[in-house]
Amino acid sequence: MKFGVLQFFSWPGRRFPLPTVYERALDRIRIMETTGYDAVWLAEHHFSTYSVCPSVHLMGMHVAGITRNLRIGTGVSLAAFYDPARLAEEVALLDVLSGGRVNWGAGRGFDRKEFEVFGVTQEDSYPRFRENVDIVLRAWREDRLNYDGQFHRYRDVEVLPKPLQKPHPPVWIASSSPDAISWSASQGHAILMDPHASHEELAEKYRAYRRGLAEHGHRNDQDTPMARLVAIGKTDAEGREIARAGARWTVGSYAKGRRARHRDPVERYVDQVVIHGSPARVIDELKRLEEELPLKYLLAAPLSHASFMRLTDEVIPALA
Predict the structure, then answer these.
(1) Tell me: the pLDDT tens digits for 137-184?
(2) 280 is in which domain, residue-wise?
(3) Please, are residues 302 and 228 in contact by the beta-carbon 8 Å criterion?
(4) What is the pLDDT of residues 41-51, one digit of tens each?
(5) Which residues lie closer than 8 Å to 44 by C-beta, 6 or more apart?
(6) Residue 33 exposure: Cα atoms within 13 Å on the Cβ side
(7) Disulfide-capable partner of 229 in 16, 87, 233, 274 (CB 3.0 to 4.6 Å)?
(8) What is the CATH number of the domain that holds 88?
(9) How far is Cα 247 from Cα 252, in angstroms, rounded to an integer?
């Protein structure tokens, strides 16, 4: 099993200065560099304390400066909100300056406030996102960009720099809805899987993705990082309480204003979404999910610093 971290920059209750959020995250990334992690995946969000990181490319450059081996994933670049030529430049520059360590993850986004502020309608968001991803890939692959699309037109544009990795960094598309999974599979893209689905839902989504690849004659052997919220305590009971506290924060920030499909969304997270318990229980749960999902790449979103440290010191050595 491979391990990565989906690194949020949450600012719960604004209880301490925002620079402390970044300092703690960067300290965690320094630990990842030497403890068997494949990559840190940086989460982009705007206008919310759920995660205060509006530029994963700028943050990625800082990460590149404090690490040498850890891969730097964008989890994700919210591609619908960018000029795609500019996005291609920024990610390529990060790839060059990091020594070719970029994993490019791209997503459409979901937050209504982000769409409103950036002037992207819900109706246009899917075609704009898909066009932008296409343009970024063409800008990397082709000497000069020529493109006539629904939203963008380019004539004889030399997009520089080109990425260090050839033909470009490995690409993943964040895919959670059936439509997104179907489109990613139809294009042969690797996917990132979301941390908010239940384990059962995640397994079905993965099966749908593999069926879609086969139906369109594609084969993609890249890893499929599956994001899972993780809460690890000294005991099973302590792990469950960490999970419940993290679920309350998630429901109150990420899920605020979204229609609840479950009578008690917090308990849904605790019972069906979060991997929680003592280190021994979490190891057993991950072994089970490795077989059932199958979970081959854990993209962990730890719900506390103690959870991260126990994952690092006690869980990963037992499974890597």
Answers:
(1) 999 999 999 999 999 999 999 999 999 999 999 999 999 999 999 999
(2) 2-319
(3) no
(4) 999 999 999 99
(5) 51, 53, 54, 55, 56, 74, 75, 76, 77, 78
(6) 15
(7) 274
(8) 3.20.20.30
(9) 8
